[in-house]
Amino acid sequence: MEERIEIAPALDEVIHSPHHWHTLGHVRLRDAETNKIILLPPPSLDPNDPLRWRAYKIWIAILVSTAMVMCNFMAAGPTIAMVSVAKSYFPDESPDVSIPKVAYFFNNSALAQGVGNIIWVPITIKYGRRPVYIFAFVVYFFMIIGSGAATTYAGEIVTRLFLGLAGGAGECLAPLTITDIFFLHERGLYMAIYNAALSTGVAFGSVISGLITINHGWRVIYWVGAALVGSTLLCVVFFFPETAYERLNHNLTADPAALHTEKAPIGGGSHSEDHEAGITNIPRKMSYLKTLRLWDGRRYTDESLWKMIIRPIGLIILPPVFWATIVMSVTIGFLVAISSNIASAMQSAYGFKAYQAGLCYIAAILGSLLGILLGGPFSDWVADFFTRRNGGIREPEMRLPAIMLAVVASPLALLLYGFGIQNQMHWVVPTMGLFFISFAVTQGTNVSFTYCIDSYRPIAGEVTVTQLAFKSCFGFLLSFYTNVWVEKGYGLAYGEMAAISGGCLLLWIPLFIWGRSIRRSSLKWRVVSFISWADDREVGE
Question: How far apart are CA 286 and CA 465, in angstroms?
Fold first, then answer.
């Protein structure tokens, strides 16, 4: 028998509390008497409310995750053919000289992909998701074509720079979209799918790019990428409605009949006719043609773009955000470290060709899929276990014990890869390293990232920017110094990475014990006073 789920109290009671911003994820998720799950954010009676979209919201989650895969496909996938690219642009130079030069093609786009979010997110928050998605993917599509057609070094650098800037929109918009359409108790699974898309995009791109190089030149990678991204763009244009929604002072479902349904009224549920008759000004369901508008003309917050641009700078000072950012940086960063030299490492250790090294990323895809299960539903189960023990009160830290799986997997992955390459063990050993590091990226990053979103839900966009921007900067630096690092020996280099990764992940323990008091006290620090947000950013959790 399914658990009973009830609608949360009227949002006005939460929003207009003088201490509403102090909740910071401290919410009642289960009723104290009935133990029923309380829907947060509370859905409205408006049929256009994204929380009431039933199965369509699952399609949207799949679409934005696919868009994320496409963004990382073209950002990192062509690196598998870096030797061929180097020969194309510098035919008379040795690989030791030419490869570092063409590495700038991919390093600058990776950096732009993260840093560009500083601009994308404020625009998205203020004007909605749909116009940014469409504009960014149009630019992304044409920059892929430009990168494939470029014949000069400067032309390739410039087109890949704008490719990264446009691709960053998909990276930052997906978490916002997921928080728009799913309730708090559902969020873990779909955030895990998003985090899997982060690493799977690299793996998928490497596998496809490697297979293309068997019989075709490296430029064909871009033509295939343009076709895939173009198809995704068409899906966004015709099947992605606006998901931003104003919840402040909105009529909310409070019908007693809805409070005792056996199944969650995710799509709106059934309400008594008397109740709906007593609510005035319920909008009609928007027509399909109306949802195709590029922009609906609304501004979803009165906050200035400038304030939203500088807010991420203050957020990094907050201990929970800082820790989650470090977790994302080291897990994804060390995956970048592996990706940046896997072709040469596999060639020197096993004589692998580019496509054979690319096929090793199938293990990474499998690791990401396992990470979805243990980073999403499992972390939700862990959080709910502690919520029940706490009398129905949810604290964001209750999700953190689930990250112990990544604490083991991440260092293990780096050790398997480093010592496997150095000692020329069977090729399965470093390939298993790819499996476990991709698992750790999906599982561990999802726990830490969702923890931050739960803690600072009203400013989820800026939290996303903080983590993605610093992650990209860290990966940018690693891409330059990985080859220098491994000159000391693969075992030593990746052993040091394993120690760093394990140490950062283990910091979940003090946050689990003292996280609530840290969240409350750190938000009162004078140095972060400028990050406070307006009431119209509140959503009821």
Answer: 31
| Distance from C-alpha of 455 to C-alpha of 449, rounded to nearest angstrom | 10
- Please give the structure tokens belonging to residue 71: 């963004």
Q: Which two tokens stand for residue 374?
A: 């243990």
Q: Say how far residue 284 (Cα) sits from the centre of its chain.
A: 33
Taken in order 499, 505, 507, 512, the sign of the CA dihedral is negative
Peptide bond preceding 78 in cis form (omega within 30 of 0): no
Q: How far apart are CA 528 and CA 315, in angstroms?
A: 7
pLDDT band (50, 70, 90) for residue 249: low
- H/E stretch holding 444 reads helix 428-455
Distance CA 28, CA 14 (A): 12
Q: What are phi and psi of 28, to 5 degrees?
A: -90, 115
Strand partners, 295: none
For residue 82, CA distances in Å to 86, 153, 432, 499 come to: 6, 14, 23, 29
pTM, entire model: 0.84
Q: Please report how many Cα atoms fall inside a 13 Å half-sphere around the Cα of residue 249, on the Cβ side.
A: 3
Distance between CA atoms of residues 50 and 58, nearest Å: 11
Nearest to 248 by CA among 532, 14, 8, 531: 14
- What is the β-pairing status of strands 5-7 and 37-39? parallel
CA distance 87 to 141: 26
What percent of the chain is predicted at pLDDT more than 90? 45
Type and span of the H or E element at 141: helix 129-149
* pLDDT 10s digits, 457-472: 889 899 999 998 888 8
| CA–CA dist 494, 485 (Å, integer) | 9
Helix axes 428-455, 153-181, angle to 10 degrees: 50
Which residues are 44's β-sheet partners?
Answer: 252
Q: Assess contact for 470 and 115: CB atoms under 8 A.
A: no
The encoded tokens of residue 244 equal 């931003």
Whether pLDDT at 15 is above 50: no
Q: Which of 208, 200, 46, 69 is nearest to 61 (CA)?
A: 69
Nearest partner of 70 among 185, 174, 188, 156, judged by Cα = 174
Q: How far apart are the C-alpha atoms of 88 and 497, rounded to whole Å?
A: 33
Q: Tokens representing 342?
A: 């896997």
Alpha-carbon distance of 443 to 192, in angstroms, equals 7
Distances from the Cα of 145 to the Cα of 72, 138, 159, 228, angstroms: 16, 11, 9, 12
Environment class of 488 (CB within 10 Å of its CB; exposed 0-12, middle 13-18, buried 19+)? exposed
Helical (H) or strand (E) element with 112: helix 95-115
Residue with the two structure tokens 């899929």: 369
List for the chain the helix, strand, coil content (%; round to 5): 75, 0, 25
Residue 458, CB-side half-sphere exposure with 13 Å CA sphere: 25
